[in-house]
Every structure is written in structure tokens, then in C-alpha cells.
Amino acid sequence: MLTRFVPRALAALLVCLAVLGTGCSSGSSSSAPAWARGMATVQADRLPAEARRTLRLIDDGGPFPYAKDGSVFGNFEGELPRQRRGHYREYTVRTPGERDRGARRIVTGSGGETYYTDDHYASFKAVLR
């Protein structure tokens, strides 16, 4: 009798773990704004401290530490939703230990969108604020 119970209990445990794992993922969220649906998301307070500082500078309108901060982001990689040129602006997120701008950026959209990349535009997460 015990041998029949163990496989069922194990199967039930695996189903529960799968459901919990899906609910805790950093993937898209049903409560995410429309512009963020279908992509990975991150809460702003979960970003690295340097990214949170960059967000504050953006909110305050600067001053920005890098000359290219606030410049047009062309989205040439096509990782963000397609928009007209000038829709997106990019800002450097300081990377400790890097002597140049590093790979981390925040990209904002004129519609209030905010995205974060830590791999120089290879992938993005929608920042939920």
C-alpha cells in the first residue's frame, strides 16, 4: 500500500513545486502594464543600487555623469517593442570596477516605459515602478 502512495505523493509534490516556481518567476506578470507584457520584469527596488541611483537621476532630470546619458537609443537589436526613432532614451548604469561605461543601461520610452539591461542590449527586463 505504501508503494502506491509514494508515487502519487511525489507527483503531487512535483505539481505543487511547479506551480510555486511559476508564480515566483521573474517572467512577465499579469499585473504588469501593457508595454511590459510578454517580457521579463523586475521591480525597481530589486535593481542593483547603481541602477536605482540612475533612476533617481532620470526622475530628477540629471545632472548625468556620462555625456551619452539621455541620448536616443536606436533599438537596433530589436529587443524592445518597435517604435519611431527618438521614442527611447538610454542612460548608463555605473558598473563597479569598470573604467568605461560598462554594459549596464536603463532605457526609457516616451510613454513612461522603463527597461534595464545588464548585458549591453542583448536582453532587457521591464522595470516595474
Automatic annotation (TrEMBL):
SUPFAM superfamilies in alphabetical order: Microbial ribonucleases
Entry keyword annotation includes DNA-binding: no
Keyword Cell division: no
InterPro entries hit by this protein: N1-like (IPR000026), Ribonuclease/ribotoxin (IPR016191)
Keywords: Hydrolase, Nuclease, Signal
Signal peptide range in chain numbering: 1-31
Protein name from the UniProt record: Uncharacterized protein
